[in-house]
Specification:
- The chain has two helices and no strands.
- With about 70 residues, it is an all-alpha fold.
- Helix 1 packs antiparallel against helix 2.
Length: about 70
């Protein structure tokens, strides 16, 4: 496995971990706000927004790493 493969794998693992963390943050926000599971009102929760932003940053990084136009593979 090359360092490139290691980097892509690490980002994949990070996305998975952060996705799980986002779910936990959402559930915590639902409890804090006293709303039912799946309530859209948690979308405005600052902690949940930050978690989603971090996930989006990792997804963007993955896209940059795996985009053949960048010539990293």
């Amino acid at each position: 496995m090359t360092r490139y493969d290691d980097a892509v794998s690490a980002i994949d693992d990070a996305i998975s971990t952060v996705t799980t963390w986002c779910d936990q943050v959402r559930q915590d926000a639902e409890r804090r706000m006293g709303v039912p599971a799946g309530a859209e009102s948690v979308i405005g929760d600052p902690q949940y927004l930050e978690a989603l932003e971090i996930r989006a940053d990792l997804t963007a990084l993955h896209s940059r790493l795996t985009d053949p136009r960048n010539g990293f593979s």
